[in-house]
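Q: Structure tokens for this one, please.
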Amino acid sequence: MERLMPDNWGILQANITYRLQLDKGRQHGRAVFQRLSRSLTSNLQLRTGRKRCQEFPIRLPSCVMDYFEPIDLSLNFTLAGEVIPDSKGLRPILNEYTETSQTYKLLFQMDCGLDNKCEDYLRICFNFSGGDMVVIGRATVLIATVVLENAHEDSSNTQLNFLHPSYFSFKKISMVQESSVQIVCSDQQNDRLMASGSLRCAVNPPVFKKGSRVMFNTVFDITATGIEETSANFTITATSENSVRIKNESSYTRSMLLRYAVNVAASGIEYTRHLNFTAGHQEERLVKHSYQGNRSICQPLAQRLAAVQSETVREAQDYVRLDCGIALCTELLCEVAVLEEHGVVIFHLKGELMSAAIAELKVKKLLLISKVSLSYDGEKYVDISEVTAPFKEVTLETEVEVMEEVNRLPMIIGGSIGGLLLLIVLIIVFYKFGFFKRNNNTDEADKLNMNGSDGGEGTSTEPEILPD
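A: Here is the predicted structure, written as tokens:
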């Protein structure tokens, strides 16, 4: 305490009351006084011509997470002067321009070695929990397991910058191993960055200490729709505000394969089941096999030769399975235009079967086979259902039967002769039983009745006219 102007009052005295506060305005303080309190109030007597000092130890009660920002020490005081002897009640007062409050900064010192220049060495690597292939339509999330360590001096304001496809949207961070290091990825700026396939995460702000290591999972939702890419890159880069950095392992990129889940099936819905041909006749029959599957576009026909030599079909057989083992086959390659969910298309295979072609086989029965096999581009699609595996290939069969032609002339002649003989036999039988005699007797009886009626009773009295 000093005088502002000279006087003859001798030594002046005053009592000062002051209050100290640590981290004023913070919800959670980082330091306390000796009695574990963030504030302290004390009194001190001052007099001109002498200085007074008091010391108050400051403690850090736990591991300080934020040691980048200084600790604020706030001081507020008031002064009450004592009555000056023989002054009729005069007291010293505080200059009205004196600041009665002051804030001091208690700085943390970073561990930067002898040169006092912090040089960090951020090393990062990661992998995908499900491997480097993502099946879109089956997988709902992508999990990147990240390992970050600082192999040198303290790193200030360390950040991780993710660059990924925009159809991966950040969901959460979860620790793989227990660690005091904090990863913070949620802020308003990230909401804008994620729309373009970016993510920024702070690592243990403000300082990621030397020798620290953290392993965590970054979970992304997969919201891929209307994309056709077969690969994508995923990059994570570690940065800091250190003026000197070792960067050779601070960025890591992995490529992932993108595959799309499919579950396609085919089925036969209608077909020609049976056909009859007559041997020796030139006939044609329509054969139709209908299948149901995905919407398709078919390429021009491509013929394929038989796998077995033609000599094997020259011998007469009762039954032949007419497929590519003994005859020429026609193969159609159909490419799916659009893989729409639950999409259905019906397609028909039609052809005219000639009796002449069957005659060359010299068989009585045969089966016409058509087969539909479903496949997909393995470089782009993955079949997600083993249950429907039998429905990837469907076969339809048409049974063809060759009937021998029957010569009807002998039957007609035989029938005519047989009918004539039967008629003769019937006439003879009727004659033997007197069928024809009964008719003659009846005629004679009629004549007798007519002659005997001339003088009988009840006869007509009309005159009879006799012929000349």
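A few notes: Residues 299-319, 455-468 have pLDDT under 50 and may be disordered. DSSP finds four helices and 29 strands in the chain.
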